[in-house]
Amino acid sequence: MNSPHPEPLILPLDSLDATLERVGGKGASLARLASAGLPVPPGFHVTTAAYLRFVDENGLTGEVLAAAAEARPDDPASLDIASARIGTLFAQAPMPADIAAAVRDAYLALAAGEPAVAVRSSATAEDLPEMSFAGQQETYLNVRGADGVLDAVQRCWASLWTARAIGYRARQGVPSDDVSLAVVVQALVPADAAGILFTANPISGARDETVINAAWGLGEAIVGGLVTPDTLVVDTRTGRARSEEIADKEVMTVRTGDGTREEPVPDTKRRQAVLDPGAVADLTRIGEQIGALYGRPMDIEWAIEGGRISVLQARPITALPEPRPTLDWRVPREGGRYARSSVIELLPDPLSPAFATVALPLWNEALREVSGALGLKFELMTLVTINGYAFYDFGYSTSQTVRLLAAMAGKVPLLFRMMGSAQTRWADVARPNYEAAVNAWNGRDLGATPATELLDGTHAVVQTAGEHYVAIQSGILPVAYITEALFAVTYDRLARRGGDPTALTFMLGFDSEPIRAEKTLFDIATWVRTQPELAAYLARTEGPQVTASLRAPAAPIADTEAWQEFSHRFADYLQRFGHSIYDLDFAKQVPADDPAPLVEALRHFLGGQGRDPHERQAAAEAARRAATDSLLARLGGLRRRLFTRLLGTAQRYAPLREDALADVGLGWPLVRRMLAEVGRRLAAAGAVDGPEDAYWLTWQELQAAAHALDAGEPPPDHRAAVAERRAAWARERRVTPPVTLPLKDGAKFMGIDFSRVMPAHTSQPEGDTIRGIGASPGIVAGVARVVGGPEEFGTMRPGDILVARITTPAWTPLFALAAGIVTDVGGPLSHSSIVAREYHIPAVLGTGVATERIASGRHIAVDGDIGVVTLVGGLAPTAD
Predict the structure, then answer these.
(1) Of 165, 89, 99, which Cα lies nearest the Cα of 132?
(2) Helices and strands (DSSP H and E) totals, the chain
(3) How far apart are CA 484 and CA 646, in angstroms?
(4) 867 φψ region: left (φ > 0), alpha (ψ -120 to 50), beta (else)
(5) Which candidate among 151, 264, 691, 871 keeps its CA 20 to 30 Å from the CA of 739?
(6) Using one digit for the tens of pLDDT, what is the confidence trace for 550-585?
(7) What is the Cα–Cα distance from 703 to 680, expressed in whole angstroms?
(8) How far apart are CA 312 and CA 139, in angstroms?
């Protein structure tokens, strides 16, 4: 913290000598803007040399560093203690006379009298492309008089050591002795309006869009999150708004005689647009100039007074997503109709090459068998891939559809028999066959098994997995959907009275495999509480480290007996439930591969977070029984028999559907072990870089490579192809696939628009409102937590609103923490809906774009009654 040689104490705002080291990140940026002729308010820099002189002459260096060294970023109390100690040191230290004189002279030279100024901190580790450090130091507005400026400068210096600044630097790995602080003093703009401008869309990454937040008064109300601003998405090329969200702006920041305050916005201006089209175009043009000056997307603070725009700050946008690629969504076959529904709700991402080339053909084979069982001479539907994503091909012309309907009309009795045998076909045939294919490999030494046999085993398991799912798809799922919907309609129209519970109440409180999994995990946590040393270890140790300890030979705690019992219980849990899928593609891990997300859920239960699932289920069951008894007690004769039958069937299939879907991945742990063994051998032979690369080969390539391995011959080198396919997958995953194809009228068939019954709605207008399907009733507001997969489960906190592409039974532990659910894909009878209703939390599903449009940490409101998600507060700005 020592300056090697004399440096200027004051520099003009546009000085060419205003480097990062001399004037900090904010100051260097303002100097660059001012020297380029952009509309920056006049001012000057109090350089880092002045700060260093102040610290050195008052002998503060050792005490400041010692106090900072005692603070721990994960201990808020230690940060507060360090900050308070350093703040006292700064407040009691006198400012050197020559620094005070230099600041006073520069201030008086700004304008006649005692002009109002803004005094802003500018740290040397700030506004950098990789780390913004925004909001870590202080700003003082509407400061008047030389004495007031000197006091504000000294307080800015002290703010280099606020608790949040010390903690932020520690978390970013910035040493305390590597930072110093400059101060920028500028004429205050008495703004009529102010806001934030992003020269690229910070949510989508689109570089051709400018996003503007605007509110009345000074910009502090926006920066501080006190007001919901207007939000405009602007076409940067034309300067015209593509979308506008005019907010109800309740509060504005205004000047007072000696500072600022918040006051209500006049009623006439609350719903009035802050910016007219001319101002929008001018701001966009200035944003373009600044972006061109820096050669990168920028985050800009601006103000308008009397129609004149001033630029108050500009920093690089950090963590800007890459712009979404444009894919060609032309249909592969003229006249084809394609939809992402049914099993594809479990495949939100592009498919791995291995899954696409072995699983899809086997699924299609199972679908053909269903068509054959119905006596049809053509396929009802076929799974295909377009841009890596799975679609169902419903490629019928109008005449073919007429013939299909005519053929199906003659199969109605057979269809009813198939529906009637739905449970038997799954429980007595499909699942036992699937389980037998898996059990056939029990005890086999995979390492000693020829590669071709491993692929044969994989093929057999995947084939029975496809037959298992199609048995569910052609029986249990439609019966569950139809009977629940039929009961709800009949109940609402013929039996429900004022004050009666909703039809939903009759479907809740049943046991099912996902609920049993949650209760079992909760029971493990309950037992852990009886083991003090074990409980303390799990409470302080994150999931990945616990998982590593479970696989290590030695116990991580002294109480080895408790640890061994915990290991045994957790292993039993994984044996029973570890095949639950996060995603149907077997290239994705299942809990048995990496149980760290389950450990995190267990730790939440251990900490008392999340409702006891036994109590929750018991309450739902009691409500269901009471509603059923009350309904049947007042019905008689034919109506009673009708409701008894409808309700009994719906209640039988509701939990059965969840049990069946929970076993979709029954064979995936084995498949993943077999393919990993093949991949290990390919990596040893130099054909791929690692075992996981096996998923990035096609089935034909895997077979050829396996034959070469078994013959002792070198397999082909697939490393370049794997790298290309991984890159293509990552590019495709950044795109939200359309729900139906062709893009124009893809959801229309025979003149009927089926878009409302599709599992996602991708045709969403820009703005802060996202529409979907209201799948679980209720309204909640809170912080969104966008979770891309199990590797991000640990980011979820109690009370967050879970936002995901899909959820499957393996996601159930997060529901115990969530205040609400929002998904891209899903409908009123999907897993997300069913579990959300069990948990009594609002859910909006099938939005199509939630994970694209909602950023983690953003405040949102979820209305599960009408299926609407509202982004509250516009785009989250970075604080000054």
Answers:
(1) 165
(2) 30, 27
(3) 8
(4) left
(5) 871
(6) 999 999 999 999 999 999 999 999 999 999 998 899
(7) 15
(8) 12
Query: SS3 for 860?
Result: strand
∠ CA(815), CA(816), CA(819), 5° rounding? 70
Tokens describing residue 121:
């901190």
Which two three-digit tokens encode residue 850?
């939630």
Neighbours of 436 (CB within 10 A): 11
Cα 842–Cα 784–Cα 315 angle in degrees, nearest 5 = 160
87 falls within a domain: yes
Q: Is the domain of 236 the same as that of 174? A: no
Residue with structure tokens 């509250």? 872
Distance CA 88, CA 113 (A): 32
- Side-chain half-sphere exposure of 498, counting CA atoms within 13 A: 0
Whether the pLDDT of residue 220 is over 90: the answer is no
134 shares a domain with 86 = yes
Rounded CA-CA distance 166/311 in Å is 29
Within 8 A by CB and 6+ apart from 75, the residues are none
pLDDT, residue 561, reads 96
Residue 367 resides in a domain: no
Choice among 70-74, 313-317, 705-709 with the minimum mean pLDDT: 70-74
* pLDDT of res. 879: 37
Q: Please answer whether residues 596 and 704 qualify as being in contact, where contact means their C-beta atoms are separated by less than 8 angstroms.
A: no
pLDDT band, very low/low/confident/very high, at 837 (cuts 50, 70, 90): confident
Closest CA to 765 of 348, 341, 271, 241: 241
Residue 528: which domain range? Answer: 503-634
Residues 174, 69, single domain; the answer is yes
Report the pLDDT averaged over residues 216-231: 76
Look up the CATH number of the domain holding residue 835. 3.50.30.10
H or E element that contains 551: helix 543-551
pLDDT(132) > 60 = no
Query: By C-alpha distance, which of 358, 851, 430 is closest to 586?
Result: 358
- pTM score of the predicted model: 0.73
Q: Is residue 356 part of a domain?
A: no
Q: Do 120 and 35 have their domain in common?
A: yes
